[in-house]
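All the exercises in this workshop are built on plain-text protein records. A record pairs a protein's sequence with a compact description of its fold. The structure tokens are whole numbers drawn from a learned vocabulary of backbone shapes. Once this layout is familiar, the rest of the handout is easier to follow. An example says more than a description, so a record of this kind follows.
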Amino acid sequence: MGMKVKEVANLVGISIRTLHHYDEINLLTPDEITNSGYRLYSDKDLEKLQQILFFKELGFPLKKVKEIIDCPTFDRERALELQRKSLLEKRSRLDKMIKTIDKTMRHAKGEINMSNKEKFEGFDFHNNRYEQEARERWGDQAVDESKAKIANMPGDPEAIVTEIYSKLAALRHQSPQSAEAQSAIKEWFDCLNKNFGNYSLEAFKGLGQMYVDDERFTQNIDKMGEGLAQFMCDAMVHFADTTKNK
């Protein structure tokens, strides 16, 4: 007999709501549902859940996980091999960063001296997954143009973005359709087009949807204020729709 949702949640250490969400988006639908409406997870379902959680640990958004697992050519054994390799690489990076922290603490106490190079051992920004996904979505030319704009921006690009995000975070409890919210989201639209690339209204709307579809974006944006990603998404959709109709 299969396992009920609560049993699986307790076994794995995730919430019942998470399992319900996986079911709602057709990422993990249990093999059997009783006449009483209870979801029953088979061993095969648990294997699939394991795969989902491995991919999540490696930073894959749920949409991409679903795409990979649902592919007819998906090979579980091959996926496990690649996941193991990626996790070993991640562990190696973390070990290096822990050593850097330990050395930094000793340096701060005057026990050792650290060179500037040693202070940043373990950090690796050469393989940017966001950039790779952007290239796959919008093409090399768009990404290269955006990077060139950022390189030539006056001031600190991160500070400019943070300022706009802070303004939106302060407004996030209002309606995303309010005049203040729309004024701030227009500022974000103008900032993107001036500094990061050429965003059509549809691309801007799609970017907003990505803020809530991709858990990595949601988590990063919500650091500025809980619910900010959803607020920005709603505001961006409204801005795109109303501007397009003017």
Observations:
- Strands lie at 3-4, 32-33, 39-41.
